[in-house]
Amino acid sequence: MALSIEEIVNKHELALKKYRGLYAFADLFATYLVLYILFVLFNMRDLFLMFSIFEPYTGARYNILGFGIVFETLGLIFLAFVLSLIFTAIRYYRAEKKDAIALIEETHPVLKERLRTAYDNRSTDNIIVRDLIGGVIIDSKPVQSSSFLDRRKLAKDLFVIVFAVSVLAYVAGTGYQTTLSPTDLNGVIDKLPLVSNSNSELYPVDENGGTSNNTSQEEIFGKPAVVVVEGKEVDLKIPPGTGQGFTSQETGEQTNESFTQSGLVNPEAAASQAYYDNLPEGYRNVIQSYFEGLAEE
Amino acid sequence: MRYTALEIYSAGAGKIQKNQAFRASKNRNLKGEADMNETNIDSGQAATTYQNAGRIFKNFFEDIGNVVVGQNKVVEQIVIAILCEGHALVESNPGLGKTLMISTVSKAMNLKFSRIQCTPDLMPSDITGTNVIEEKDNKKEFRFQPGPVFANVVLADEINRASPKTQSAMLEAMQEKQVTVGNDTFMLDRPFFILATQNPIEMEGTYPLPEAQLDRFLLKVLVDYPSYEEEMEIINRYTKSEVPNVSRGLDKSTLLDLQKLTRQVPISEELKQRVLSIVGMTRKDKEHIEYGASPRASIGLILAAKAKALIEGRNFVSKEDIDYMAYPVLRHRLILTFEAERSGMTPDQAIEEIIRKLK
């Protein structure tokens, strides 16, 4: 029994929906793989060290399906997936979506304008419409839903997937990574509003006991505190240089001329590992001995 | 009271009894409404007409071509107007064969043809007809003498030379397909088609049709000069002792069937939207067009495209039909801005611009 014009169009529309789903999945998978490879190659795992919120989790291992996966890898997988989902969704919604009728008319010129007209007038009953619908049904018999499958598009996605998997296998096997990492972008990130760490709560203390970041005129430290020790007044003024701790200094005591004041330590918040790497050169032993002294006391 | 032209002729000199006429009119009106509501004309004759439509039109245009040299587009557009039950306004210089063309079409369709030469002193009654006193059996009685409008095809030559009052009488006949004389209303016989002509030159002493009245013409057809070869053929044909004639290839009932079939030609929603876009853009293009086309133009454009499809032997309307018919349907419904007119722009160019934008 011959199908009605509506059934023919619905059948092709259904096939088209399936193909669209297939394109979307292939796009998503290809985009995901490409993004993940880029993340791995450009050491994006360091990204998690740049944000203090992730710092406690870095290096942590999670057992997933019997595999021990570190937090950074999981994060990259998640990030790549979310981004590829967004990219695919944007591409999907921006893509020109032709309905089944338009596609059939495009691939089968004999049905051009006829199929659309017959479908739109399927509920009309007169001699001309019947004639048109009859002709369209006959001419649409050779139309196969599989002819709508965009094989070139799928082949392109497949090629990208195969290429990405190959690169991933190579990277996994050789451990190859570029020398670039997100920490190289620190300077750029600092300038970004909201993302920047320049609003850190650690401020360099200036000579007056204030902070250079304190833009307000309010004196948050107040007047230097003075204590009396064995009849002598000792002020508790914070000496220049942060991170050095308090040093008591008697009033009128001569400043040690041989003492060379160290530069200000970068006051910005930094992950401990990064901080360790950025210790001022030559002061490692001094700091080590300081803490050893503290431990002995 | 309503009488048909046929009834007027058949009644002859006898006075029509008012009650009988009323009853007859009522019955006829009911029948008429039923006819109008009839959407399915799958009678055997209509089906035959549809099946033979291609051959009918081919023979018809060949017949016309034996008399009228060239002007194929013009003849086609006149036939389209007839199929749509509309009317056409033809604009051409004198001597291009307008009268020959329309009289040939009416002869080929086996229709009653009349011609009105419009002049400033032409009165409405000269068109519609008037009551005359007739003496019979020592009794005097009024008898309605129908005017030239009581025909199937009427050529109103140089309509813009008639006074506005006469133009209005003719336009009532065009729109309502009826004529009112005194207290009586007379229905015109179907098919009814008016082909009005206008001369684009010699505008002095004319009464140009107002835009509202122009809107009642389905098409405005432009007749251009024939080509060299066509003119050579014209002088060859019409300088002999034997003048070419047309055969009666189409009868009235077939024409009525074709008119009904025209409305049945299906059109897709996409093309309906295109029609609305084209007509809508005539209202939005304020740069070139001061006043755009009315919804009547949208109806006219779809109908004309349907007729064009039927003539072409297609059972669906195509985009080309819409674009092709946009020119004759819209050109007399647009009023260009002063700047556009001053720059030498024509309505056809404005329509072309709109269609180009929509492509």
Summarize the structure.
Chain A is 46% helix and 6% strand.
Please describe what this structure looks like.
The complex is a heterodimer of chains A (297) and B (359). Chain A is elongated, with a radius of gyration of 35 Å. The termini of chain A are far apart. In chain A, the strands form two sheets. Chain A has a three-stranded antiparallel beta sheet with strand order 3-4-5, with no helix packed on it. A two-stranded antiparallel ribbon of chain A has the order 1-2. Helix content of chain A is 46%, strand content 6%. Chain A has 297 residues and is mostly helical. Chain A is built from nine helices and five strands; from the N terminus they run αββααααααβββαα. Chain A has two domains: 5-180, no CATH class; 226-296, no CATH class. With 359 residues, chain B is an alpha/beta fold. Chain B folds into two domains: 2-253, Rossmann fold (3-Layer(aba) Sandwich), CATH 3.40.50.300; 266-358, Orthogonal Bundle (Helicase, Ruva Protein, domain 3), CATH 1.10.8. Chain B has a five-stranded parallel beta sheet. In chain B, strands 1-8-7 form a three-stranded mixed beta sheet. In chain B, strand 4 (129-136) and strand 5 (139-146) form a beta hairpin. The A-B interface holds A 113-114, 116-121, 124-129, 131-132, 135 and B 39-42, 46-47, 50, 261, 264-271, 315-319.
Largest interface: A-B, 17 and 21 residues
Task: Note the beta-strand portion of chain A.
Answer: 5-15%
Q: pLDDT average of chain A, as an integer?
A: 76
The CATH architecture term of the largest domain in chain B is: 3-Layer(aba) Sandwich
Number of domains of chain A: 2
Largest sheet of chain A: 3 strands, antiparallel
Separation of the first and last Cα atoms of chain B: 51 Å
Task: Please tally the β strands of chain B and state the result.
Answer: 12
Provide keyphrases for this structure.
heterodimer; A: 297 residues; mainly alpha; three-stranded antiparallel sheet; 9 helices; elongated; B: 359 residues; Rossmann fold; Helicase, Ruva Protein, domain 3; five-stranded parallel sheet
